[in-house]
Amino acid sequence: MTAEKPVRRIVAIGSGKGGVGKSTLSANIAIALAQRGVKVGLVDADIYGPSQPLLMRAADVRATATDKKLNPVPTPYGVPMLSMGQMVDQGRAIAWRGPMVGGALGQLIDADWGDTELLILDLPPGTGDVQLSMISKHKPVGAVIVSTPQDLALIDATRAIDLFAQASVPLIGLVENMAGYICPHCGERSDPFGHGGAETAAASLGVPFLGRIPLDIAIRTASDAGTPPVAIGGPGSAAFRMIGDRIAAWLNR
Ligand SMILES: Nc1ncnc2c1ncn2[C@@H]1O[C@H](COP(=O)(O)OP(=O)(O)OP(=O)(O)O)[C@@H](O)[C@H]1O
Ligand SMILES: [Mg+2]
């Protein structure tokens, strides 16, 4: 009798544009799900600008390989991970062309993940050919789209929704990041990027709204220090956990 190959599902985190918080969300929901007992791994698909090694405090760990299969790198947060950042020296530019990028990502995904049941795939910014071929080839079971709250979010979200539709990847829902800034000095709340744009966009596009993460300097400083908020009970933890739970509920539906 042959052992059945474990069914490992991939959830992709994407966005219409860069810098909206895909990597921050990916790291925090992976940790949140691991805290819930899910066997979850993290793949940084941003081949040119990997950020997960820093976020997950695994920047100076090099990935090894056994029998031509990569071994995921452990992190302090119970989430094994793989990123190009663990293959090349930090700060060195990667100048690969399309087919090599596809091959490299394939190796990260087809690594020796053991009993990992869920892979969170942190996609690079944009909705171009690279992203399309990545998701077409590796077939995530679902996708989460991150957006900032301004009205323009609708346009970006639509582009991201299109990308996943083209690859027939179902949408789990939309997350609004950088909503409502609380001034660290006076405590007053302001909305530098507007408020509710992503939720309105989700409603008008008929996509589930998964939650809202506040704009908080402490989220950035904790992330930069390699201690994602969820790992240390920092700001935004509750929101990240709720979004993680909603993704888990979708997977178990
Ligand atoms: N809610 C937040 N509050 C404060 N800072 C945040 C928040 N979310 C993300 N950031 C910060 O914004 C920057 C961009 O976030 P991140 O790298 O997660 O975005 P990204 O969408 O993955 O970017 P890229 O498109 O370059 O991959 C980071 O410095 C991060 O710490
Ligand atoms: Mg990123």
Notes on the structure:
The radius of gyration is 17 Å and the shape is globular. The longest helix has 15 residues, at 237-251. It is an alpha/beta fold and 253 residues long. It has helices at 22-35, 52-55, 98-109, 129-138, 153-166, 197-205, 217-224, 229-232, 237-251, and strands at 9-14, 40-44, 64-66, 69-71, 81-83, 118-122, 142-147, 171-182, 189-190, 209-215. The two termini are 31 Å apart. The strands form two sheets. Strands 1, 2, 5, 6, 7, 8, 9 and 10 form an eight-stranded mixed beta sheet that branches. A two-stranded antiparallel ribbon has the order 3-4. The mean pLDDT is 89. Helix 1 (22-35) packs across helix 9, helix 3 (98-109) runs parallel beside helix 4 and helix 5 (153-166) crosses helix 6 (197-205). The relative contact order is 0.19. The protein has one domain (9-251): 3-Layer(aba) Sandwich (Rossmann fold). Residues 22-23, 46, 51, 122 line the site of magnesium ion.
Shape: globular
CATH architecture: 3-Layer(aba) Sandwich
Rg of Cα set:
17 Å
Determine and state the CATH class: Alpha Beta
Secondary-structure-derived class: alpha/beta
Overall helicity: 25-40%
> For the record, what is the CATH homologous superfamily label?
P-loop containing nucleotide triphosphate hydrolases
Please mark out the parts with pLDDT under 50 across 5 or more consecutive residues, or reply none. none
Number of strands: 10
Bound molecules: adenosine-5'-triphosphate, magnesium ion
Distance between the ends: 31 Å
**How much beta, percentage-wise?**
15-25%
Number of helices: 9
* Quaternary organisation: single chain
Q: What is the arithmetic mean of pLDDT?
A: 89
Largest sheet: 8 strands, mixed
Number of domains: 1
| SSE succession | EHEHEEEHEHEHEEHEHHH
Q: What is the CATH topology?
A: Rossmann fold
